[in-house]
Automatic annotation (TrEMBL):
Its cofactor is pyridoxal 5'-phosphate. The lineage of its organism: Bacteria, Pseudomonadati, Pseudomonadota, Alphaproteobacteria, Hyphomicrobiales. Belongs to the glycogen phosphorylase family. One of its GO terms (molecular function) is glycogen phosphorylase activity. Keywords: Allosteric enzyme, Carbohydrate metabolism, Cytoplasm, Glycosyltransferase, Pyridoxal phosphate, Transferase. Its EC number is 2.4.1.1. GO terms for biological process: glycogen catabolic process. It comes from the Bacteria. Phosphorylase is an important allosteric enzyme in carbohydrate metabolism. Enzymes from different sources differ in their regulatory mechanisms and in their natural substrates. However, all known phosphorylases share catalytic and structural properties. Allosteric enzyme that catalyzes the rate-limiting step in glycogen catabolism, the phosphorolytic cleavage of glycogen to produce glucose-1-phosphate, and plays a central role in maintaining cellular and organismal glucose homeostasis. It comes from Aquibium carbonis. It holds the Pfam family Phosphorylase. This is Alpha-1,4 glucan phosphorylase.
Length: 822
């Protein structure tokens, strides 16, 4: 939101938040803003009316926050992210303003249940997994710790996709979250900017032949239209802005073509522009998809950079002060083209020389790396990049020349190291390396867990780290405790408040005071009762969506995250098959009732990930219908995983599955959410699991498998998964059952290639870690049998993970990177 022009703001007195006053205001909102009488209002109408009543109170804080940042000339943080998985906003906003209970009472006066209408609010389809949810937590925390900030992204119409499961297969359907409008957003048509693609670059020379500047003349232009959503901090102290860009054609209809009868051609530009903001992550397995993704990334970063520069100039008038007043943060490589775009603006539009522009750019940008997977460090074919962004290609080459000359001058790098440092990958197809561009153009590069940061220095950025020592630093991820404890688990929040008071509501480290209750039988019983209620709520969801009855007294074993081979849902499913065999083969043993939950989406073009979803559903179909199992084991795949689904599953989990191949998960944030809500982690020493283990203590977490250095050493020595499989009867039997069609009688060979891959290469070390994982699960059984011990460990998890608050993370970012004055 930009500086308000109104001189007076409406002030809501305390008595305006009285339930009866709020009820009257909701009725007025329903009548005059929604246009409905109470007698015919639908639940959606009540939802819109209620949101708008609270939104009015947000707006005055929003304007005040913006004015304060402007008048005090505070440095602003600009957070650029391809995803903002914000979920539903109603509870977030109502709770952070302290209005939830008053609004509940107000609506009750009107015979409306707040929980009913809150359930109608759609999840904003603006992200996919941890990257987008982290960005959402960071936006809320920046407001909560009083840091002036803007988030910038894309206003996706259909998001990633809505996942349905048909005959066990993932089916992708368009998300329709905007069908009923979005009462939280404000269109800012006056903040629209033009974005160009393609075309030519003209060199302008002086009369004496000196090059003065370059002029990019794009062939295509689209309009980026701003939509602002207020982001309310805890206790409403600050309200920041999430600005999302929607695309539209500069000429919405070519009237001459339309009148000539070419009705389709007349709308071609409008349709092409609209495609930019339709879908998150269009499949990039073909050139058209790659091109659209690059267009999306440039579209939103270019619009954001123009917006940032314009705001800075309107307030300060001089771009030489940009790094002092603006901290631009790149959330992964998706917005890395912003570095070339800022250079273009500084040089071509504002006439600043290359060296000065490069210095300003590096001081302004910072970059968070979220992955060590080479395929996730984006790179673009040079021909595609040059055709779409010809001026930016020139700038990338110029930056690369500067970087490589600097590397050569150090005389510590051989030719192979120089090639790795280069912004252009020269082996085979020439590609622009966006990770290297982000690294070279930023003054700070951070990892998101201690292990990830160390590995980043040793692997993907080892040479750049030698060239620019000191740039890499660690900022372990965090989660907002408002959404991931107070809102999603009100029972546990109330129990904690009664036991230790309210200080943890503002400082989650205060949860440590719960440690003394871990040995209190009465508190353990009440803690268990809260968990039981949360499990009953999840059981109702499963019954409603899948018509499957599950027992809340069983151990709820949960793995929810993006479906990817390195996250090893396959390992979890194979262990379920092995356990199924053991239960049937040894019915005399004291088996514990267990429900394994999985949820997550697979990228539409990721064949093996989609096959793993099908396998999960095929295995579930067989196990759940087999009477010989006697209900001791069930497998549940919940479709269309979302923030709202997570808010039900996380508080209900007894066991948190964090089982990625060590060294491959940058951090994880689901692991933090589960632990905060009293689940015990079973996991590898990967990502933030390392720090969770340190915080909760080795006795309160179940660790298994190879460590990161052991994974690397095993691969280096020559990994032979076949020998491991043949030496493990449980693993061999489970894989034979899967491969031979026991779970796919309609297509016995469906999983043969998937299983053959484990025998032949097994890059993600499923076989190497299987026996250790299975043993760890039996250790979990032993702990579960001793209920007081289990609950004590669960309490210690909640008590000792307050450090993983995103408030702490944001304060560290500001202290070490942004310097915005917290």
């Amino acid at each position: 939101m930009d500086q308000a022009t109104s001189s007076e703001l409406p002030i809501f007195a305390e008595h305006d938040n009285d339930p009866r006053a709020l009820a009257e205001e909701i009725l007025k909102s329903l009548t005059y803003r929604v246009g409905k009488d109470a007698s015919v209002a639908t639940p959606y109408d009540w939802l819109a009316a209620s949101i708008k009543v609270v939104r009015d109170r947000i707006i005055e804080r929003w304007i005040a926050s913006t004015k304060e940042a402007y008048t005090q000339q505070r440095k602003r943080v600009y957070y650029l992210s391809m995803e903002f998985l914000i979920g539903r906003l109603m509870r977030d906003a109502f709770s952070n303003l302290g209005l939830m209970e008053n609004m509940r009472e107000a609506l009750k006066i009107l015979d409306v249940e707040i929980d009913v209408i809150a359930g109608l609010e759609p999840d904003a389809a603006l992200g996919n997994g941890g990257l987008g949810r982290l960005a959402a937590c960071f936006m809320e925390s920046m407001a909560s710790v009083d840091l002036p900030a803007h988030g910038y992204g894309i206003r996706y119409v259909h998001g990633l996709f809505r996942q349905e499961i048909q005959d066990g297969w993932q089916v992708e359907l368009p998300e329709t979250w905007l069908d009923h409008g979005n009462p939280w957003e404000f269109e800012r048509r006056e903040r629209s900017v033009e974005i160009g693609f393609g075309g030519t670059v003209e060199s302008i020379t002086s009369k004496d032949g000196r090059l003065e500047r370059h002029v990019w003349r794009p062939q295509e232009r689209v309009l980026a239209v701003a939509y602002d959503t207020p982001v309310v901090g805890w206790r409403g102290k600050r309200v920041n802005t999430l600005r999302l860009w929607s695309a539209m054609a500069v000429d919405p209809i070519l009237l001459a073509a339309f009148n000539a009868g070419d009705h389709i051609g007349a709308l071609r530009e409008a349709n092409q522009a609209a495609s930019l903001t339709r879908v998150l992550y269009p499949a990039d397995s073909h050139q058209a998809g790659q091109e659209l993704r690059l267009r999306q990334e440039y579209f939103f970063t270019a619009a954001s950079l123009q917006d940032i520069v314009q705001r800075h100039l309107s307030q300060y008038g001089d771009l030489m002060t940009l790094p002092d007043k603006a901290a631009i943060h790149l959330n992964d490589t998706h917005p890395a083209v912003a570095i070339a775009e800022l250079m273009r603006l500084l040089m071509d539009v504002y006439g600043i020389d290359f060296d000065t522009a490069w210095g300003l750019t590096k001081r302004t940008f910072a970059y968070t790396n979220h992955t060590l997977l080479p395929e996730a460090l984006e790179s673009w074919p040079v021909p595609v990049f040059e055709r779409l962004l010809p001026r930016h290609m020139q700038i990338v080459y110029a930056i690369n020349a500067q970087v490589l000359l600097e590397a050569r001058s150090r005389q510590i790098f051989d030719d192979e190291q120089i090639r790795r440092i280069s912004l252009i990958h020269e082996d085979g197809d020439r590609r622009v390396r966006m990770g290297n561009l982000a690294f070279a153009g930023s003054h700070s590069i951070n990892g998101v867990s201690g292990l990830h940061t160390d590995l980043m220095k040793q692997t993907v950025f080892s040479d750049l780290n030698r060239l620019y020592p000191g740039r890499i630093n660690n900022k372990t991820n965090g989660i907002t405790p408002r959404r991931w404890l107070m809102q999603c688990n009100p029972g546990l929040t109330a129990l904690a408040r009664e036991a230790i008071g309210d200080r943890f509501l503002d400082d989650t480290d205060a949860l440590k005071e719960l440690n003394r209750f871990a040995s209190d039988p009465a508190f353990r019983d009440r803690f268990a009762a809260v968990k039981r209620a949360n499990k009953e709520r999840l059981a109702e969801l499963v019954d409603e969506r899948l018509s499957l009855r599950i027992d809340p007294s069983a151990l709820f074993d949960v793995q929810i995250k993006r479906i990817h081979e390195y996250k090893r849902q396959l390992l979890n499913i194979i262990e379920a098959v092995a356990l199924y065999d053991q239960i049937r083969s040894h019915p005399e043993k004291d088996w514990l009732p267990r429900v394994k939950f999985l949820a997550g989406k697979a990228a539409p073009s990721y064949h093996n990930a989609k096959l793993i979803i099908k396998l999960a559903n095929d295995v579930a179909r067989v196990i759940n219908r087999d009477p010989s199992v006697r209900g001791l084991l069930k497998l549940v795949f919940i479709p269309n995983y979302s923030v709202s689904v997570a808010e039900i599953m996380v508080p209900a989990a007894d066991l948190s599955e964090q089982i990625s191949t060590a060294g491959m998960e940058a951090s994880g944030t689901g692991n933090m959410k589960f632990a905060l809500n009293g689940a015990i982690t079973i996991g590898t020493l990967d990502g933030a699991n390392v720090e969770i283990s340190e915080c909760v203590g080795e006795d309160n977490i179940v660790i298994f498998g190879l460590k990161a250095h052991e994974v690397e050493e095993t691969r280096r020595k020559g990994y032979e998964p076949r020998a491991i499989i043949e030496s493990s009867p449980e693993l061999g039997q489970a894989l034979h059952a899967i491969s031979s069609g026991v779970f796919s009688p309609d297509d016995p060979h469906r999983y043969k290639a998937l299983v053959d891959g484990l025998y032949e290469t097994d890059w993600f070390m499923v076989a190497a870690d299987f026996d250790s994982f299975a043993d760890a699960q039996r250790r979990v059984d032993d702990i579960w049998r001793n209920a007081p011990d289990w609950h004590a460990k669960a309490i210690r998890n909640t008590a000792n993970v307050g450090w993983f608050s995103s408030d702490r993370t944001i304060r560290e970012y500001d202290r070490d990177i942004w310097h915005a004055g917290l």
